């Protein structure tokens, strides 16, 4: 059913990004899956770099957060199967922000809106949007997700 919804939305889960450090993409614990922070990558390479509000504009950053969210879902799918997700619990987003940029919440709306599109009411979640001076690989956005799954 969830994959039918993805198809209707013309969304495709990307391949799970290979870790760029000593960690795994997602870890199940109890009835939760914690997906590691995902930066906007395609084929193992970051697709955009720089600070939001300088090199990356708000619209692009919002699209990139959506891409990060899809990557997080791919990690969840590999860990427990996306069809077992019953609730998106928490989203934490980091935005590499130029001085004076204060729209981190708007950037993360890309990810949040994607979860709502895919999961409906079960996609509504708690969220933190944090501005930071720099992210790994000079990525503009990083998104991590915790979901509840059915056992």
How would you explain this protein's 3D organization?
The protein is of the alpha+beta class. The protein has a single domain, classed as 60s Ribosomal Protein L30, Chain: A, CATH 3.30.1330. 30% of the residues lie in helices and 28% in strands. The protein has three helices and seven strands. Strands 1-2-7-5-6 form a five-stranded mixed β-sheet, with helices on one face. The chain is globular and about 45 Å long.
Task: Give a short summary of the structure.
With 151 residues, this protein is an alpha+beta fold.
Keywords:
single chain, 151 residues, alpha+beta, 60s Ribosomal Protein L30, Chain: A, five-stranded mixed β-sheet, two-stranded antiparallel ribbon, 7 strands, 30% helix, Endoribo_LPSP/chorism_mut-like, RutC-like_sf
Number of domains: 1
Q: How would you spell out the order of helices and strands? A: HEEEEHEHEE
Strands side by side in the biggest sheet? 1-2-7-5-6
Number of strands: 7
Assess the beta-strand content as a share of residues.
Answer: 25-35%
Structural class: alpha+beta
Protein name: Endoribonuclease L-PSP
Organism: Actinosynnema mirum (strain ATCC 29888 / DSM 43827 / JCM 3225 / NBRC 14064 / NCIMB 13271 / NRRL B-12336 / IMRU 3971 / 101)
InterPro entries: Endoribo_LPSP/chorism_mut-like (IPR013813), RutC-like_sf (IPR035959)
Question: Which helices and strands appear, and what pairs or packs with what?
Answer:
Layout: H1 2-8, E1 26-29, E2 32-38, E3 41-42, E4 45-46, H2 58-80, E5 85-96, H3 104-119, E6 126-132, E7 141-149
